[in-house]
Fold:
Amino acid sequence: MANKVIEKNPKETGAAYYYLGEIYARTNSEKVRDYEKAMDCLQKSLHALGPKNKLRSFAHYNIGLLYYQGKGMEQNYDSAFVHFEKAQELNKSLIAGYAEMIEFGLGTNKDPGYALTCYEEGISAGEDLYGKAYGLRYVIQHMINNDLNEEAYKNYQMYIITCSAKDDDKGSLKYLKASSDAGFVPAMCDYADYLRQGELVEKNLEEAVRLCKVASDAGYLPAMHNYVSTYKLFDNSITLEEEFKLYKKCADLGFPLSQTTVGAYYYNGWGVKANIEEAYKWNFIAAKQGEKQAKINLQNIGVNLSKEQRDALEVEALKLPTSNKESSKLLAELSSIPTFGNDKSNAGAQKSQTSAGGALNASFYQSQYNKYSRKAERELKSPEPRADYLASLQKNMSSLAEQALAKGFTINRNTELEQATIDKK
Structure:
């Protein structure tokens, strides 16, 4: 059908090529799957889709994913980052790949603070990136404490990278287990999921409960949330009252998924006296943080309340804890100490900088400078470079370099490229 559209309806060629690329890349049929054809179709879709077509963001994301995975072509992190960057510029719900590459320093400078901000932008756009965001918070907190288990974190990175890049889930799982065995809390939480489901490893509910409990006791909120459902599978004698108390404890710490669950327990009267007003409040604060199900629940609950009641409850709900308050605190602490996670060869050039505005350090300025630099390079290679756009990019590059210099930071400045934008104008 897609090929018929390409042949018969030129106006829909871009969409047809996009869906054809999706089919070649994602089908479970080995007979049909063809990554080289997928890349070719997705590239053609970009040329044919209009600048405002919503499919452009998805085409960029899928091309980035193929480069990131090295499927159908040689793995290329630089090209992957360029397409992930473009995808998230067009659609913040597709920010995960971009943020992950920034977190791990693949195809760009490593910047954990900025990566956390990106994950939370994705959550606000309605994506389930809680695991990635809370995992990175854990890392940043231990960076600040100067007690991060680098080897365990490296194994966790390898699990995520190889899990995405290869059709070999068992091969990537060895890294996750090694990280979990070393006590890396996010890895313990993730490995417990495999044990609970019996996916790729032998099902072991007792060990899954143990790992969730250890991670939960360490204050890791995703594990605290998962502990209830995992324990219920292990021992179904747990009462609704006990379930509610456990979820409420996690909700009181600002975890949106638990807040949505607490809202459901209040609405249905599970383990607590039914209270539609409490249900509305907890779903409201979860929805404010981007939780999809909470937004749906909020609409269903709201029809039973007057506008005056809803307005009053929303004012009260805003006093409840949220997860982004903790992130702001962490980023402020991170910005007040020397940059973490960068190559040691650059460490001497990076001085500490305190700022409530985020991770304002050499890595921050370098990553932002590189962003504009890549855009300038692409524009200069286009058939008709836009003079006003180049002027804006050159101004931003120069401004960032001057700001960094004023704060005592050294960044790698591409003065030739800056001059080329001026010459091209």
Notes: The chain is about 70% helix and 0% strand.
